[in-house]
Amino acid sequence: MSMQLSVHGRLGKAPRQIPTKTGTVMASASMAVQIPLSRGDDSDTQWFDILAFGRVAESLLRHKPGDMLNVYGSVQINRWQANGETKQNLQIVAESLLSARTTRPGKRKAANDSDRQQCSPRPWG
Description:
mainly beta, CATH 2.40.50.140, five-stranded mixed β-barrel, 1 helix, 6% helix
């Protein structure tokens, strides 16, 4: 069983390409997501690591820190030991990516620069 998640947030650092033996494009990035707290108007920031392959990775690599994205994919929990303490983080293996980047008035987007890349169909259509 797996958990699917869609998050909307900002990239924290520039995405980086990860070399693979097979030549498949692979990229990783970190993303800050504001999560509302149950009381009041406060929110908390949750960081997610994003891992992408193929066309989704190519799209991710075109983004910069601060860009707003919506990422959909399966969630993994990574655990490790550091200084005798168990740490963990959430990682989303991206199946699709939607950029919320806007263009300035008077500027047109290149026809081949697709903001939405999808590796597999979403379960809802």
